[in-house]
Amino acid sequence: MRKFINIILTLIFSIFIFNHYHANDSISFHSSVLLKNHKGLIPLKNLDTLEIASLNLSSNNLNIFEEACDHYSTVEHFHFNTFSSKRMVRSMIKELKSFNIIIVNTDTIHEIIANMISTISNQNKVILNYVGGRKLMYEDLINKSCQSILFSPNKKSKDLGFSGQIIFGGLSCNNVLKTDLSNNYKAQFGIKSKKIRLSYVSPIDIKIKKNQLYKIDSIVNAGIKNKAMPGCQIIAAKNGHVFYKKSFGNHTYDSLSKKVENSDIYDLASITKIASSALILMQQESYNRFNVDSTLGYYLPNILDSTDYKNLVIKDVLTHQAGLASWIPFYIQTLNDGLPSYELYSKLPSSIHQNLVAKNLYMLSSYRDTIFSRILSTGVKENKRYKYSDIGYYFINEIIKKLTLKDQNLVAENIYKNMGLENIGYHPLSKWNLNRIPPTENDTFFRHQLIHGYVHDQGAALLGGVGGHAGLFSNANDLAAIMQMYLNKGVYGGDTIIKSEIIEKYTSSPYYETNNNRRGIAFDKPIRDGAGGPTCFECASYKSFGHSGFTGNLTWADPESGILYVFLSNRVYPDAENHKLISMNIRTEIMNVITNACNYSTAKEVVSP
Questions:
Q1: Do 466 and 320 fall into the same domain?
Q2: How many domains does the chain have?
């Protein structure tokens, strides 16, 4: 009898748990209500064309709101006291003229604020984020002045952050007013807006097992203690919701060195292949300007005619089964007695020395031809078995230039700008302060200096820092946005970056059945029928994809689970022979924790096309 009762209780409990989680499939993170949205201004699109400012007229500290906005774009934040002199008001309005979107935050609306908003609207588009008020006063003037109005009934910090995410499309808005707010905005009124970008939430918001995530701290701290890496950045997301975003350690093992921050920029190494080269090729194929089933010689006849490389199929090259050498140490032939030869290098730039290799070290621009001669003098193996190689990406770099008539860095950065990404790109020292960039190797073989702000890969360095296989720098957040775009089948920020069928093509394993080659086209894939490889054992589906980077990085995305993971570090500091990150399985152990923590997640809201 007792056994029967226990069975019944267990069944009832199971039904309760099922209903508890599945009743929350349609998750509401917030209570904000969109009241007006002229021409669909919210969510903001085409961020690369917008100059955005936020103006805090509230008595509240809106740091959380401002931080939420900063996840998506460069936003200039202004704080203003409405009791300031008329001269100061005029000065502020003049300063705001250079912006085309002004987000006004206020928790009260009186005559001075209403008139100020009206004045600002004469020269700017205005989004009003009305926080915590009970009534919308001066409704006619506010409606006339604002393109969009978002009402947030709560003043809690968390809700302020959510309202910022709604404006940029991190979260959708589907709520309605619970009570009347004004003559026009009555109870049950509300306009819907879409989610088009990553959001940033608490694990609890999407039913992630937060207590499991603390294991990540233990894994990382053990790695830092054992000098597997000085520090790292980690991001984890599910169905477009970032629920874990944390940085650990320092830029170097010196405890006085700068602590790693979420905004810091790491050398991505081979992740360049999927975050730049494949990204561009997929976009070009979406435009019908490129076909991965063509040959290298089709696009580069001047370089490859009469060579063994002419008939290599690009898909074979990008799945690492074209018979290419895995690596060629081009830099060795540029040394004289172990030091850079100044027959080839210069300490200063000149008309013929334009490729910046490292600090005070410039290579002959014409040395690119020598690199290709060296490649072409290296034979191609007829046995087309899987063998990882960087060599094909030197040709991809040239193909991109031929297709677009631009250098690869310019093409890639145009895509990043279109996506609103400002913390990813080549030539990091031209974009970001050096103190945001952790150093990599203390190079005692080639450049004889600490590599700090320059690409670690020697081949990419000889090309001036822009390679098809290396050269890209990023923080974890912007790399996560690119991976989410892939999970969204090519859509991000309301734009179609790549056609969905092209994403499917590149992230599949075209040669697994015929050649036992797990690789996708440029993307890495999980090892099948066994442990090891880039993922933890049985915690990523065969549809998942990603890539690792020699400097200590890994990013992975799984269409079946919706899980996205980014791990960035500088494990090569100060010595690239340090392989503890791999031997300790740090990256895959963290992936395992993230996967287990997501087992009961109910996050179903995904980025909308």
A1: yes
A2: 2
| Residue carrying structure tokens 């100060």 | 574
> What does the alpha-carbon distance between residue 222 and residue 229 come to, in Å, rounded to a whole number?
10
- Mind listing the pLDDT tens digit for each residue in 532-591? 789 988 889 999 999 999 999 999 999 999 999 999 999 999 999 999 999 999 999 999
SS3 track for 55-123: EECCCCCCHHHHHHHHCCCCEEEEECCCCCCHHHHHHHHHHHHHCCEEEEEECCCCHHHHHHHHHHHCC
- Sequence-ordered list of residues with C-beta below 8 angstroms from that of 91, at least 6 positions apart, any chain: none
Residues 123, 224: one domain? no
Q: Compute CA distances 550 → 17, 313, 338, 578, whole Å.
A: 43, 26, 24, 11
**Cα 487 from Cα 467, distance rounded (Å):** 25
The number of beta carbons lying within 10 Å of the beta carbon of residue 36 is 19
Q: Give 127: exposed, middle or buried? Use CB within 10 Å, 0-12, 13-18, 19+.
A: buried
Whole-prediction pTM: 0.92
Domain that holds residue 117: 33-194
Residues 6+ apart with CB under 8 A from 535: 526, 527, 544, 546, 556, 588, 591
Extract the runs of DSSP E, i.e. beta strands, from 107-205: 125-131, 148-152, 199-200
> Which region, left, alpha or beta, applies to residue 532 given φ > 0 means left and ψ of -120 to 50 means alpha?
left
pLDDT in tens, 309-331: 999 999 999 999 999 999 999 99
Domain CATH number, residue 99: 3.40.50.1700
CB atoms closer than 10 angstroms to residue 129: 26
CB 389 within 8 Å of CB 396: no
